[in-house]
Amino acid sequence: MPESPILFAGSCALREEAKGSLTHCPYCGLQCPMELVTLPSGSQVFPGDPEWGLCRKGWTAAELLDRNDRLLTPWVRDHKRAKLRPASWGEALRKIAESLGKLRATYGLSAVGVFGGGSLTNEKAYLLGKFARVVLGTPHVDYNGRFCMSSAAAAITRSLGLDRGLPFPLEDIPQTEVILLAGANLAETMPPVMRYFQRQKERGGRWIVVDPRKTSLAEKADLHLAITPGTDAALAMGLVHLALREGWVDWEFVRERTEGLQELALVASQFWPERVESITGVPVFRLREAARWLGRAKTAMIFTARGAEQQAHGVENVLGYLNLALVLGKIGRPFCGFGTWTGQGNGQGARELGLKCDQLPGYRSIQDRKARQEIAALWGIPETALPREGLSAWELLDGIGTREGIRGLVVMGSNIAVSAPYSSRVIQALESLEFLLVVDFFLSETALLADVVLPAAQWAEEEGTMTNVEGRVVLRQKLKKPPPGVCTDLEILHQLARVLGWKEGFPSDPCEVWEEIRRATRGAPADYYGVTYERLRRGERLFWPCPQLGHPGKARLFLDRFETPTGKARFFPVRNFGPVEIPDSQYPLLLTTGRVGAHYQSGTQTRRTRELLEAEPEPFVEMHPATARSLGIPHGGWARIWTRRGEIRVRARWSRRILPHVLFVPFHWSGLGQANRLTNPALDPVSKMPEFKVCAAAVEPCSCPQEPESPDKQNCPEEGVTE
Ligand SMILES: Nc1nc2c(c(=O)[nH]1)N[C@H]1C(S)=C(S)[C@@H](COP(=O)(O)OP(=O)(O)OC[C@H]3O[C@@H](n4cnc5c(=O)[nH]c(N)nc54)[C@H](O)[C@@H]3O)O[C@H]1N2
Ligand SMILES: Nc1nc2c(c(=O)[nH]1)N[C@H]1C(S)=C(S)[C@@H](COP(=O)(O)OP(=O)(O)OC[C@H]3O[C@@H](n4cnc5c(=O)[nH]c(N)nc54)[C@H](O)[C@@H]3O)O[C@H]1N2
Ligand code: SF4
Ligand SMILES: [Mo]
């Protein structure tokens, strides 16, 4: 049993010396190129391409490499009431093997679940999925992308047959005439991409932004549709209705490349503009204007992001916008198309390579016999031993502690105690687990609840690939050694597999894992076979599908055919819309949640970054002055917000940019201002996406709360404490 981390030098034939100090940002799906420089004062990043900027999260990303509170050793808890204490790798691994072994022996293989993340590289995501299914033998493996991309993925797959976030490269954006963006706040969430939108505008293009808030993006838009949260499907169907009635349909395209218009038209006839205005709050004249702009343009692009997707009708919302793109014929041809903004660095790759409970690597269904046979053969197990579909992210958390449910959980790359909906329930569930293992760089709120925490290397200390928002594979280079005592996630998986009895099949060398991914995805919808580290190092721009070594990959999808069995895109009549919780006298407002520019996700990383914390030190509620005044909540004053699940206390920020019946709270904080204490875990029936973006809420002024005890203090491990 190793007492210190061991580097496993894999024998990858294609390994070359890393060149230069170029890599990619550890955060969002844009994967901006960056350069890492080590100065006497510490590490610092610079844009990797002088033409391409970084957002402030990117600029400050290196600070965390040198943080003195990063995890440098495993931590273990001797029993549930004990505090975490530092431990050796040997002891931690022994404890994991014993605890998981006991759970599996007592309750069966499905008693252990695995929760992964979209920030993991392709190699890590693939190996974690394989670890769950082969070593643990559990069907229950899912990831935080279920909370992110799953509604868009499900809708696009249904309609177009193949889900890749953007079906075209970013550089196509300036060439399109009209852009519709629904529920995407790109000026805050992916700032460098705005250059393409700006260029499109300079060429005479126009933007239509659908958002309940006049975000900094909506402010620059030519048309802002201030939608009531939860009603995108009705808005999109209203636009389809207008397209049909006012002659904007591209009949030739519809005839040749789509199927199912008749049924769609029938349903669309019920979405006349006045009705849509009453549902969505968007005035008829604006709806008409939007339909006219999109209809008249020769080219247009339609995008959604989490605003329209994170809802219990998220799939229907996205299908509504897909229907619109299809009737107008603004898809499947140059400088047109439908796209979704993949949020996390590798939200795209992680969902294709086996971190979803219903999928095998390469974007193949886990129920597909042929795929099962191929993957089982590659993994060296009988097909019958390969688990079938397991529980999705929320169901997995919800299943903890139930009679047949999950008793042990392995978390790598997610901070669910902060980011999952209805967090009081989640925290309780995590506390009730018989065994929780968390792999992270920091003691996140989730790690603080763990029985064992393993310290992972950060982005600049490991090698791997990420699949960005365009479906392009980028190489993350190892530019630094991890601090002593810290292992890469792949080394950790290798070790976990080993102590659980698997000596082979879990290499810690990323290039070796990549070679297996190439084989695992060969011939599959998300085909990575033609992508090699060598090609990426040479600077080739490679998109999936990339079926052969000489192949450039497919930068633009659907130009000749859609990827459905018939080659035609499918219309899906959309009938359901509206939030699960309708405002009433007790909960008269609609709460929506989302992001601010300075913080990332659950905040584990950005709340530890000095400049970002100074920019946005605390959570807040954005509310309209009219609403605030009528309730007696001053700008900067404290507000108590409550929903059917819990309450928070935050300061109020008055803003005329939000609809009067809507509240907005960012979700990057824990404790008293944690947005997810409020959110509704109602799921979309198809995508299993929770309704993060809308629930009924009430608000009142409150006194300044007692300084909430920071969760880091509540449960702080004490150095050297053994009991
Ligand atoms: N700064 C920053 N950038 C990030 C992240 C981060 O945490 N911080 N995270 C990354 C990740 S993982 C993701 S998924 C992306 C998310 O990127 P976005 O989807 O752009 O971000 P959100 O703030 O979640 O939601 C976008 C907008 O949806 C609006 N909205 C709310 N309800 C509705 C509705 O019912 N309909 C419509 N049409 N709009 C609605 C909100 O007002 C908000 O402005 O950002 C990525 N980039
Ligand atoms: N209310 C509300 N809740 C939301 C959303 C919302 O809009 N509103 N958005 C949802 C969305 S879109 C998302 S994507 C989720 C994201 O929420 P989370 O899944 O919590 O994502 P992160 O905060 O990025 O958590 C990643 C954790 O893993 C660690 N980590 C990062 N990279 C690695 C790695 O490579 N290896 C290891 N071992 N650890 C790593 C980080 O330190 C951090 O603690 O939140 C969802 N929750
Ligand atoms: S936009 Fe995304 S990838 Fe680019 S620097 Fe910012 S966080 Fe990093
Ligand atoms: Mo996300």
TrEMBL record:
<dbReference type="InterPro" id="IPR006657">
    <property type="entry name" value="MoPterin_dinucl-bd_dom"/>
</dbReference>
<feature type="region of interest" description="Disordered">
    <location>
        <begin position="702"/>
        <end position="723"/>
    </location>
</feature>
<dbReference type="InterPro" id="IPR050123">
    <property type="entry name" value="Prok_molybdopt-oxidoreductase"/>
</dbReference>
<feature type="domain" description="Molybdopterin oxidoreductase">
    <location>
        <begin position="70"/>
        <end position="498"/>
    </location>
</feature>
<keyword id="KW-0560">Oxidoreductase</keyword>
<feature type="domain" description="Molybdopterin dinucleotide-binding">
    <location>
        <begin position="589"/>
        <end position="696"/>
    </location>
</feature>
<keyword id="KW-0411">Iron-sulfur</keyword>
<dbReference type="GO" id="GO:0051536">
    <property type="term" value="F:iron-sulfur cluster binding"/>
</dbReference>
<keyword id="KW-0479">Metal-binding</keyword>
<protein>
    <submittedName>
        <fullName>Assimilatory nitrate reductase, catalytic subunit</fullName>
        <ecNumber>1.7.-.-</ecNumber>
    </submittedName>
</protein>
<dbReference type="GO" id="GO:0022904">
    <property type="term" value="P:respiratory electron transport chain"/>
</dbReference>
<dbReference type="GO" id="GO:0003954">
    <property type="term" value="F:NADH dehydrogenase activity"/>
</dbReference>
<dbReference type="Pfam" id="PF00384">
    <property type="entry name" value="Molybdopterin"/>
</dbReference>
<dbReference type="InterPro" id="IPR009010">
    <property type="entry name" value="Asp_de-COase-like_dom_sf"/>
</dbReference>
<dbReference type="Pfam" id="PF01568">
    <property type="entry name" value="Molydop_binding"/>
</dbReference>
<dbReference type="GO" id="GO:0043546">
    <property type="term" value="F:molybdopterin cofactor binding"/>
</dbReference>
<dbReference type="GO" id="GO:0016020">
    <property type="term" value="C:membrane"/>
</dbReference>
<keyword id="KW-0408">Iron</keyword>
<dbReference type="InterPro" id="IPR006656">
    <property type="entry name" value="Mopterin_OxRdtase"/>
</dbReference>
<dbReference type="GO" id="GO:0046872">
    <property type="term" value="F:metal ion binding"/>
</dbReference>
